[in-house]
Amino acid sequence: MTVESTAARKPRRSGAKRTSAKRRTADQPELVQLLTPEGERVEHPEYSLDPTPDELRAMYRDMVLTRRFDGEATTLQRQGELGLWASLLGQEAAQIGSGRALQDDDYVFPTYREHGVAWCRGVDPVNLLGMFRGVNHGGWDPNSNNFHLYTIVIGSQTLHATGYAMGVAKDGADSAVLAYFGDGASSQGDVAEAFTFAAVYNAPVVFFCQNNQWAISEPTERQTRVPLYQRAQGYGFPGVRVDGNDVLACLAVTKAALERARTGQGPMLIEAFTYRMGAHTTSDDPTRYRRAEERELWETKDPISRLRTYMTAQGLADDAFFADLEKESDALAKRVRDSVRAMPDPDDMALFEHIYADGHPLVDEERAQFAEYQASFVSAEEGN
Fold first, then answer.
1. Which of 114, 169, 310, 350 could bridge to 39 as Cys pair (CB 3.0-4.6 Å)?
2. pTM of the model as a whole
3. What is the mean pLDDT of the chain?
4. Which ranges are annotated Basic residues under compositional bias (predicted)?
């Protein structure tokens, strides 16, 4: 693919119907698209997809339920039930599309925002919340779902994924590995090292970058001089940019990349060009560094709305389908709320355990100081 200038974070509005999905503007590189923001189906010469009506409805259901769960988690954090939450609002298509491209024996290495991919891998949404409540370090067995634990350290999971993929290749397995990271993580040395090892060892790994255009408060153009997918060329493997708000394109491109990896053709980089509609996490205030007009523009590209428009226009979903899905969404939200509120409060002293095998005087001192500090709140309440 070719580029006319460096990456920009303000894609233009879509225009009239197109017969080709290879789209480019004066300040944007090409990207793979199969469903326009207006809900029009288009074709691409390299990536084709012919989903059945059932598959389309299933992906729509995945995105709706993932968004509802994500919204409930944000609300629970605001109510004091979770310590933190990283919302995926606006990135549902990138995650559901790529997640549904996986085979059962493929392995996923996520960051901390891949709630939609976790859904696709069969991880109970409630299990995702234990870590954010502070009651566990990840509430699922990675090997049960081939979905690794969430990784908070930025970019490190790409190295884990590459090492695992190298092992897969040595074992002679025909499975692939999918590693997720964000545009901010692309600036980390771990990602560069992962690219190097993956290329040299021809590892069966696909790197999936969700470029939501903001590494907390830092825009992408302050991190790179070229579109992120072009970095793959310097390491000797292909890269492609896909419309990250187009679930069909994300599915088609990721399926092709994973199949390429499984058949011994090595790594590939996918840049899903999307947008983080909300805050980086619930401790962030995006209004301090983003304009409202920017979000308003991206609301016209909403991944759920465009698929609903397409299905409705094609007669692939009726009012009963959407009504039933709304009921299912409400039931999921209630189960999440009830389950989280039934979780125990975090053990305040647990952070001092298992630091040293035989204990340490400094840790003992810190534990005593923290216990005294916690007790001061109880004394103050009793005094009132």
1. 310
2. 0.88
3. 91
4. 9-23
